[in-house]
Specification:
Elements lengths: L6 E6 L3 H12 L5 E7 L2 H11 L3 E5 L1 E2 L2 E2 L3 H8 L3 E6 L4 H9 L4 E4 L4 H18 L2
Parallel strand pairs: 1-2, 1-3, 3-6, 6-7
Antiparallel strand pairs: 4-5
Helix pairs in contact: 2-3
């Protein structure tokens, strides 16, 4: 069933400036996208995923020593959402592993803003197709 209203995005990253930047980038796309929350840790990500019921989660690979990839299946089991990984790592095996675990996409943190927004929309479209 397609989502009515803006696509709800949760931002999970251990760096406050990255969280603020990604959230601002998402909110610029209102009324199509809205940032429903930000989390710095795995525990916060789990709590906010339950509370906010995001459609898409932007998830950092490394959360201050916690493994962001380990959260992919857990977050997707809590709510029907898609995951877009963001990373500062440039090893292509990271993206392959993330997608094997169920992430829709994996982008480098230096990717252009338009590419990140496009990945959120594409993840949401995949979510809509899967729920039909």
């Amino acid at each position: 069933m397609p989502v009515e209203g803006p696509i709800k995005v949760l931002v999970v990253d251990d760096h406050a400036s990255i969280r603020r930047g990604l959230c601002s980038l998402i909110n610029v796309e209102w009324p199509h996208l809205t940032c429903v929350g930000t989390a710095a840790t795995a525990a916060e990500a789990l709590r906010l995923t339950r509370e906010c019921q995001p459609h898409v989660v932007l998830l950092d690979i490394n959360l201050a020593g916690e493994d962001g990839m380990a959260l992919i299946t857990v977050l997707r089991s809590l709510v029907p959402c898609e995951i877009v990984m963001v990373t500062s790592l440039s090893d292509p095996r990271v993206a392959t592993q993330a997608q094997r675990l169920g992430a829709h996409a994996c982008l480098h943190k230096t990717a252009p803003a338009a590419q990140l927004v496009a990945a959120v929309f594409a993840a949401h479209q995949a979510h809509d197709r899967a729920s039909v």
